[in-house]
Amino acid sequence: MTSPSPSFGWTRISAVDTSSSNGRFIRAVHTGDNDSVATSFTVQRSTSGDITILALNGFLDAHTAPEFEKVIQEEFDAGRVRLIAECGELTYISSAGLGVFMSFIEDIRAAGGDLKICNLTPKVAQVFEILGFNSIFDMVPTVADAETCFAGPAREV
Q1: Of 133, 66, 148, 75, which is closest to residue 108 (Cα–Cα)?
Q2: Domain-located, residue 16
Q3: What is the pTM (predicted TM-score) of this model?
């Protein structure tokens, strides 16, 4: 049935449940060898005053990016534009996931808000840094640090 994948630490499965029970979204990703790899992604929302904290968990890729995009769009549409992406449990990010961050930042800043990124794992932080995201976004160690960034001067659009 399931066994650990020696190369990536993923679990190989023969069937995939794509339901969204308990807020978890599971997708099958074809690996090219007639096996499937399950990718899971969740976003947990919480608030601290007028700041919304989005705790990301799992794989943010082309299959799961639309869910993250939907959450940010809902926050933006509701006028909640002070956002923190808490990434301590984000284990993978693809260009599609990075694109979600980029697609909203101008509109969020034009509305007087910002999107701060915190608690990146070293592997995910390396992707952000190689692509220069640290010059566009405040990337800090903790949620408390991200909250403190909102007290400082706003970044330009």
Answers
A1: 75
A2: no
A3: 0.75
